[in-house]
Amino acid sequence: MESQRMLDATSPWGLRNYWKTNAMGPLTPAAIEAFDEVFMSAKSPASQVQLEHLHGALHRTPPGANAASFAGAKYNLLVNAKWTDAGRDEENIRWARDGFAVLQPHLGSGAYANYLVNEPRERVRQAYGAETYDRLVDLKDRYDPANVFRLNQNIEPTAPVL
Q1: In the chain, how many domains are there?
Q2: Number of Cβ within a 10 Å radius of residue 92
Q3: Do 94 and 104 belong to one domain?
Q4: What's residue 160's pLDDT?
């Protein structure tokens, strides 16, 4: 339960959130400078730019071995806009998107799909990688052709049953 609660202090109930995420390679001087630029331009004191260090079994998992392979990535980046006032939605969402664009040249391939927010199908596919995504579609076709489990980062079946 401790790991489930580790972000509770910085993410209390009621905060508005918008996230952008991607795997990231080494921290070059240019990447650190971009990271600092994004962090310092945050529109809310609750907003975060996080780097999660990937190591151990997750880092060693070869591509295609499971749905969450980060082989070759050193970090997972999360640009997380957090704010309370609904009137500031546009400003904070724009900050996350613009900040993610600033960091784009330093990003690798793939992303932690659980951190994706309101992304189109192609972005979900990119997060998993084409080969893994296609394997997940095959599983979806076999076990959930009616797309009952379709919330969050949906893997759509080839031909949803209506």
Answers
A1: 2
A2: 21
A3: yes
A4: 61
**One domain, residues 35 and 52:** yes
Q: Do residues 48 and 80 lie in contact, with contact meaning Cβ atoms separated by under 8 Å?
A: yes
Exposure pattern of 137-153 as b/e (b: 16+ CB <10 Å)? beebeeebeeeeeeeeb
Closest among 147, 150, 151 to 160, alpha carbons compared: 147
Lowest mean pLDDT among 59-63, 95-99, 142-146: 59-63
Q: Which is nearest to 11 in space by CA: 44, 35, 34, 43?
A: 44
CA distances from 123 to 40, 99, 103, 109, 132 (A): 27, 17, 17, 11, 13
Say whether both 17 and 91 belong to one domain: yes
| Claim: this prediction has a pTM higher than 0.90 | no
CA-nearest of 73, 86, 109, 74 to 18 is 86
pLDDT of residue 148: 93
Check: CB of residue 106 under 8 Å from CB of residue 28: yes
Residues 99 and 128 placed together within one structural domain of the fold: no
